[in-house]
Amino acid sequence: MTAQVPDAPDGGHGRPVPDATVARLAVYLRVLTELRWAATGPAAPLGHPRTISSADLARLAGVKPANLRRDLTFLGSYGVRGVGYDIHLLTTGISAALGADRSAPVALVGLGNLGQALAGYAGFGGRGFRIAALFDADPQRIGRTVAGLVIQDIGDAGRVCREAGIAIGVIATPEHAAQPVADVLVGAGVRSILNFAPGVLLVPDDVQVRRVDLALELQMLAFHEGRRADPAPTGVAVSS
Amino acid sequence: MTAQVPDAPDGGHGRPVPDATVARLAVYLRVLTELRWAATGPAAPLGHPRTISSADLARLAGVKPANLRRDLTFLGSYGVRGVGYDIHLLTTGISAALGADRSAPVALVGLGNLGQALAGYAGFGGRGFRIAALFDADPQRIGRTVAGLVIQDIGDAGRVCREAGIAIGVIATPEHAAQPVADVLVGAGVRSILNFAPGVLLVPDDVQVRRVDLALELQMLAFHEGRRADPAPTGVAVSS
């Protein structure tokens, strides 16, 4: 990797980047990675473009072009007017800015269907983390291998996380187990938790919890579908 | 349900609601529903409050209070200055506005670990949709029952979706199967697709695709964790 984030005359180091921009940068990185894969994979057409316009990248990422251009000012200048962005350079630039070339170890707790799906998720490579340890409380699961890792006893999580320097935990347990698991993880030094279980977790102020609600996107789709089926509703209207 | 969305002097019917507001309304609804459950469940403390301040609701939803107040103007007025929002009234108001009291039928394709987790997801009730049909291509899965529904042959999806009036599909297949499955769903009249598989789907312009990237939130956490471990980075800084 020779790419680096350049000094940015229009961006500048230390300028605070809003969370929304960080999230969109991650989406651009995913889109660009998929484009690069398409351009080099077995099905790649000859002469596949090496650049992408801001309009095309914005469309593929589902954001407004103005947002894209503003987001990229935080990285410095990667675009050439009339030519667009070099896909390889922009990919490595965003990757470095997001720290996606690092590999923070992550503990995953709860190896039911969701946990197994997460452990084996193909989209986790090159995103700045790696699943480093699996835990469950079920004796029938402990000792089994999932995605190349042996499921360990949640009772050993404190020692294992401390020894491996794990600071990020994923909770994919049923709701009733989520709080005790969070307590174990926090006691083991975990400072960031991604929670897939319903309900609110109580943690110390210096621990960050992000909640993934698998129903949210489907709820949005159902809402829009309802608007389509009933274009003159009594409730709210939606801009596109 | 006697609740309705009142005529809103400060909001007004037909005023376009931004997608971001729709998404946040869905988050408020989830938080309020969880609060109501906590207030009425077996562990409910006596005298649990029936109202919530905008500051508390904003904090639980992870949004800025100013955003919350602006979002709720689209519904009309549910708050009383100095008292806060009545949890029950606000819940039913948002629910009606989002159409969460409807129940749009959804087809789920791909009953691997992720699909099974989705089919059995506890957080799907009262969100405006219901999983109505399951499909897979694997003969070993077809005919099995998951979450009360029999897995059907993807080859029958066209007929089943048309007969059941299914307009929303969820793709939880491996990446290579996602495009052919999308083609089948679109041919069956599906107009909204939620895609959990990596990669870009090609669909007609009048079909809406939303992509769920299970890595995104974890990438955000890893990014923030990297900032904590290395507070003087060469890349971008983040506002809190």
Automatic annotation (TrEMBL), chains A, B:
<keyword id="KW-0238">DNA-binding</keyword>
<dbReference type="InterPro" id="IPR022876">
    <property type="entry name" value="Tscrpt_rep_Rex"/>
</dbReference>
<keyword id="KW-0678">Repressor</keyword>
<dbReference type="InterPro" id="IPR036291">
    <property type="entry name" value="NAD(P)-bd_dom_sf"/>
</dbReference>
<comment type="function">
    <text>Modulates transcription in response to changes in cellular NADH/NAD(+) redox state.</text>
</comment>
<keyword id="KW-0805">Transcription regulation</keyword>
<dbReference type="InterPro" id="IPR003781">
    <property type="entry name" value="CoA-bd"/>
</dbReference>
<dbReference type="InterPro" id="IPR036388">
    <property type="entry name" value="WH-like_DNA-bd_sf"/>
</dbReference>
<dbReference type="GO" id="GO:0003677">
    <property type="term" value="F:DNA binding"/>
</dbReference>
<dbReference type="GO" id="GO:0051775">
    <property type="term" value="P:response to redox state"/>
</dbReference>
<dbReference type="GO" id="GO:0045892">
    <property type="term" value="P:negative regulation of DNA-templated transcription"/>
</dbReference>
<dbReference type="GO" id="GO:0005737">
    <property type="term" value="C:cytoplasm"/>
</dbReference>
<dbReference type="GO" id="GO:0003700">
    <property type="term" value="F:DNA-binding transcription factor activity"/>
</dbReference>
<feature type="binding site">
    <location>
        <begin position="110"/>
        <end position="115"/>
    </location>
    <ligand>
        <name>NAD(+)</name>
    </ligand>
</feature>
<dbReference type="InterPro" id="IPR036390">
    <property type="entry name" value="WH_DNA-bd_sf"/>
</dbReference>
<dbReference type="Pfam" id="PF02629">
    <property type="entry name" value="CoA_binding"/>
</dbReference>
<keyword id="KW-0520">NAD</keyword>
<comment type="similarity">
    <text>Belongs to the transcriptional regulatory Rex family.</text>
</comment>
<keyword id="KW-0963">Cytoplasm</keyword>
<feature type="domain" description="CoA-binding">
    <location>
        <begin position="99"/>
        <end position="200"/>
    </location>
</feature>
<protein>
    <recommendedName>
        <fullName>Redox-sensing transcriptional repressor Rex</fullName>
    </recommendedName>
</protein>
<keyword id="KW-0804">Transcription</keyword>
<comment type="subunit">
    <text>Homodimer.</text>
</comment>
